[in-house]
Amino acid sequence: MVGTREKDRMAHSLNSVESAAAVATAFGAQVRRHREGRGITQARLAEIIGTGRRFIVDLEAGKASCQLGLALVVAEAVGMPVQAVLDAQAEQPDEPAFSTVSDTYDDLELPPEEDSDGQSPRIL
Predict the structure, then answer these.
(1) Bigger pLDDT: 82 vs 117
(2) What is the mean pLDDT of residues 6-16?
(3) DSSP secondary structure string, 55-113?
(4) Long-range contacts of 2-11, Cβ-Cβ distance < 8 Å, separation of 24 or more
(5) Domain map of the chain by residue range?
(6) CA end-to-end span of the chain, whole Å?
(7) 52-76 pLDDT per residue, tens
(8) Residue 90: CA atoms inside 13 Å, Cβ hemisphere, count?
(9) In angstroms, how far is CA 16 from the centroid of its own chain?
(10) Looking at domain 4-88, does it have CATH number 1.10.260.40?
(11) Three-state DSSP class for residue 3
(12) Chain-centre distance of CA 20, in angstroms?
């Protein structure tokens, strides 16, 4: 059984992951907008910053993230103001998808687990 403190810790972790994903998505959208505005291809941007094109594709889609140093290099390469990198978090949604882990998991209908003898296990 998961206690309240453990649920709160798990909810914080879930919200942190959602927050990081929202920042990555916002940053990627800004990179794409600035890159396209300057007429730079994904392949050329990858060459400029010393990565592969696949990284640029994933970065712009919000599927990849990077450390601040690389984010600043990417921003400079596409003419994006440094403040835009730091403001990427401001574009994230105000409300997380779930307010707590219990909101996420309490409504799931899970079948009871059974031991090899076909009986439900006892909680000690």
Answers:
(1) 82
(2) 56
(3) HHHHHHTTS----HHHHHHHHHHHT--HHHHHTGGGGS-SS-S-SSHHHHHTT---PPP
(4) 7/100, 7/101, 7/102, 8/100, 10/101, 11/98, 11/99, 11/100, 11/101, 11/102
(5) 4-88
(6) 10
(7) 999 999 999 999 988 889 999 999 9
(8) 6
(9) 9
(10) yes
(11) coil
(12) 4
Total count of residues recorded for the chain: 124
Q: Higher confidence at residue 97 or residue 82? A: 82
Tokens at residue 49, please? 């910053």
Q: How far is CA 24 from CA 8, 36, 59, 82, 87, in A?
A: 24, 18, 7, 15, 12
Distance CA(98)–CA(84), nearest Å, equals 27
Cβ within 8 Å of residue 88, ≥6 positions away: 23, 26, 27, 30
Two structure tokens written together for 44 = 């050329």
Rounded distance between C-alpha atoms, residue 22 and residue 26, angstroms = 6
Token pair, residue 37, equals: 């505005």
